[in-house]
Specification:
This protein is an all-alpha fold. It has helices at about 5-25, 35-70, 95-110, 115-120, 120-145, 145-155, 160-165. The chain has a single domain (about 5-25, about 35-165), classed as Four Helix Bundle (Hemerythrin (Met), subunit A). It contains seven helices and no strands.
Length: about 170
């Protein structure tokens, strides 16, 4: 994959992630409901937790792809040529994308405005469309039958805490 394609993907995800904040920030406040005082604090904490969890998942998934996803290591971004089943990849196919979707939802929640929270559907639907129409077909093409079997065995996402925080390294002797 070319650097330009990686840049386009990064821009796509960045726009998805910030869209709830942009909509909440630029939408006229008439008719919009601002969540009352103490609930805004709760929502800010919840939104921040979703953002942190999303960044964590994305970082772990990227690290695992870099370590286990390539037969030959390179310094630049390249599409994986090996299937990764370590860490959260053992129980979900798209932990990095789930992380980005959670960041987008967190941004929407943290705005404290109803329109910001409702517009969190943008990163969710945009992320799902990206996975269905870009990631999955690309993985099938690159990894073939092995990925097809993986699709049958492992769901695209999991919110199970054991999966979200799955061990990412192997202990000695395992």
């Amino acid at each position: 994959m070319t650097p330009a394609r990686y840049a386009l993907r990064a821009i796509y995800w960045l726009l998805l992630i910030v869209s709830p904040a942009l909509i909440a920030g630029y939408m006229p406040s008439t008719g919009d409901t601002m969540i009352p005082g103490r609930w805004r604090i709760v929502l800010a904490i919840l939104g921040a937790a979703l953002i942190v969890l999303g960044i964590y998942l994305n970082a772990i998934a990227g690290r695992l792809l870099r370590i286990y996803g390539h037969t030959v290591r390179t310094r630049r971004f390249t599409a994986p040529d090996r299937l990764v089943r370590a860490g959260p990849y053992s129980c979900m196919r798209h932990p990095a994308q789930l992380g980005l979707i959670l960041v987008g939802i967190g941004v929407g929640v943290i705005t404290g405005r109803l329109v910001g929270m409702l517009s969190a559907f943008i990163p969710v639907s945009g992320g799902l469309l990206f996975i269905l129409h870009v990631e999955e077909p690309e993985a099938r093409r690159l990894l073939g039958y092995e990925y097809h079997k993986y699709e049958e065995e492992v769901p695209p996402f999991s919110l199970n805490p054991k999966c979200l925080f799955a061990r990412t390294t192997r202990r000695r002797g395992n």
